[in-house]
Design brief:
heterodimer; A: alpha+beta; four-stranded antiparallel beta sheet; 4 strands; B: four-stranded antiparallel beta sheet; 47% helix; globular
């Protein structure tokens, strides 16, 4: 059994193997994960919009042992990762980290948000430090304005 | 133990493993999946693999005991000449899929058998996986018959 705690290290190996086949193979997999995640996160969004996202990621903050801050405003939901457990595990890994590991988050979150009519901006900050910020807006113009201020925007597609 | 997680457990990762196995099998086939688990067994779990190559199964036993306990699985361990049998009677991964009403396909068990095959490669051990029913299986670690140690 792959323990729940070790899925991300296996995931990291798969990313490397798919990238060896071509970047579009990796993107196709991220989209498959987005389909799975939409069955879990989607009902929260359908029920409560931005507040539903807050509730979902608060549950993730606890279950995945994230050091993170969440914020909810009338315009957006924000998740600030102070220490990402996922990248931390991949960096603490005898197999080594895939260089685009961080991009997978946007790879699955972006399609889910587009499907539900929201606008997602992810600032990865750095691909080698376990910190990042994401904001999800109702209004595209406001999301575009915010995107101009970020350090390293995730663009998975 | 090289990796020893603490705190909460996000069991939905078992759903992601299930979706990943389906994706890889449908898009690339079983050899590609075997390679994924080979890299995981031998590179991610390098410490376990290197010890197996040197004839020491203790890190593997410790790993199984720790993570099946951490995820509240049920299991027993019995000695086997030169090895042991790890008998899982309630697999946490299978249980989680069932709790989420996700069908447990035969292919879900490939994560177990392929990891064990990869851990066996180039070592003095054979690790056999016997699936008994959903959620119950035996993993038998024994020395190869031609190994004289």
């Amino acid at each position: 059994m792959i323990p729940s705690d070790h899925f991300v290290r296996m995931y990291n190996e798969l990313f490397k193997m798919l990238e060896e086949q071509g970047h579009d193979h990796l993107q196709k997999y991220w989209k498959r994960i987005a389909e799975l995640q939409d069955t879990i996160l989607g009902p929260y969004i359908e029920r409560d919009g931005l507040k539903g996202m807050y509730d979902y990621w608060e549950h993730i903050r606890i279950e995945e042992n994230c050091d993170a801050d969440l914020d909810l405003t009338d315009d957006y939901f924000e998740f600030t990762m102070n220490k990402c457990p996922s990248l931390s595990k991949v960096l603490d890994n005898d197999a080594g980290a895939f260089e685009l590991y961080c991009d997978h988050c946007a790879g699955w979150i972006l399609p889910v948000m587009e499907r539900h009519g929201y606008h997602y901006v992810s600032d990865m900050v750095s691909r080698t430090e376990p910190v990042c910020v994401m904001r999800i807006y109702k209004n595209k113009k406001k999301a575009d304005e915010y995107a101009k201020t970020v350090k390293l925007q995730a663009r998975p597609y | 133990m090289r990796y020893a997680d603490k705190g909460e457990v996000h069991k939905d990762f078992h759903l992601a493993t299930n979706a990943t196995i389906d994706f890889v099998l449908s898009e690339y086939g079983k050899d590609f999946l075997a390679e994924l688990f080979r890299r995981t067994a031998q590179n991610v779990y390098k410490d376990i693999y290197e010890n197996l190559k040197c004839g020491n199964f203790q890190p593997l036993l410790e790993h199984w005991r720790y993570y099946y306990t951490r995820e509240k699985g049920a299991f027993s361990i019995s000695e086997e000449p030169g090895g042991f049998i790890f008998h899982v009677t309630d697999c946490p991964a299978v249980r989680h899929l069932k709790e989420r009403n996700v069908p447990v396909k035969k292919s879900f068990f490939l994560q177990i058998s392929l990891l064990n095959e990869a851990w066996s490669e180039g070592t003095p051990f054979v690790i056999e996986t016997q699936i008994i029913r959903d959620g119950e299986y035996k993993m038998t670690v024994r020395r190869r018959s031609n190994d004289s140690k």
